[in-house]
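[job 4471] stage=fold_predict status=RUNNING
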Amino acid sequence: MMCSDARNIRKKILIHYTHKDTLGHTTRTSTLCHAIHDHAGDGAEIFVLQGGSPQPAVTFPGKAHLLPIPAPFDSRASFRLQHAPQIQKRMRAQFVLQNARRINPDIFITEFFPFGRQDYLPELMPAIEYLKDRGCKIMASIGYPCSTDIIDGQKRELANVRNRLIALYDQLLIHTPAAVENSFFLRTLPNKQLKASYQQFYKTFADKIVYTGYLLPYTSGTTPQRSSMIRKKAGAYTIIVSRGGGAVYPKLITAALQASGILGDRYRFIISCGPATSQAEHDLFAAVKKQHAHRTVILKAHIPDLDFFFRHCDLAVSLCGYNTAVQLLSAGTPGIVVPFVNPASPLPSNEQTARALLLKDRLDSAVLSYQQLSARSLADEIRRKCAQPAGRPELPDDWLNGRADTCRRLFHC
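[job 4471] inference complete, writing structure tokens
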């Protein structure tokens, strides 16, 4: 039964998240916080344990209490190597547990964990056990059901620990429509054994899993320059290029800059290289822009209201992270996607590979591998897509209900 009025029932909600200098997990956590604030107002007090370095590009509600966990050990370098938590893991575990005791939340939410981020088990387990013993609801906020961690049959001990851990959770909130991304992820698994393992996992925990629909990223409103940046010209095309947070795949930016020079003045590029872009990459992009790009190219470190640009451009070129894909789906934007594949992953697949298939199916998006990507291949694909404009399909009504449905789950009596 739904509580009669969430604003009359004050709940303390503690959220733990981390990131690797990408924007995906931070943006999804921020969106969740804004949704809770909009739904409950003063009926909820939000505390956020930030497991990575602060990211000023993402805003949280003004009344959310941000608690940076000391000694973050993940960064963009984590995509290139396997690592264990640093020796500071005891310090981090104590920080998380002390705040859990001090806040005494009604609900504790872990973002992505326990589907992924297994390195964070030492700092989370003591707090989860402590809060569970005191009647706190333990919930997970998970952007996608497609984690290779949950089907890694080579680590049986890890799987057993994870199963015992999930038993402590009340609900696992997966922020996708039911059965949508699962089906595409299954297509990417290379053998029957992995497919069976993946399906068995969801059968085992079916009573805990709830599909909420997508969490459309929160946007803070307009920026003064965006209308002028997106201005249209008869017979010309506006191309938006984004690599999300900017932690991976720099060739997407260099190829786009060079492709603009190949395509000429009918194709206007607005390129976001991402807030995690290193100084060396900024210098490289500036040099490539000066030497190869068309004069109409706009190169930005970050575009905060990317959703607006996706809705008003002719074509988008991007990676296929959760938030970018949800914005493209919501806008019905035709695109070219280059799904990120982590070289440290034990499988030749991940959620971006699966989601690229979804966008190909729903939006007729073109899919290029990073290995295929070049200035010429990108220019040819942009020219082809712009020459075959298509309508913008609408999503089923329940696909974008993530904010509302998540809040209903949190504020049930």
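[job 4471] summary: The radius of gyration is 21 Å.
[job 4471] exit 0
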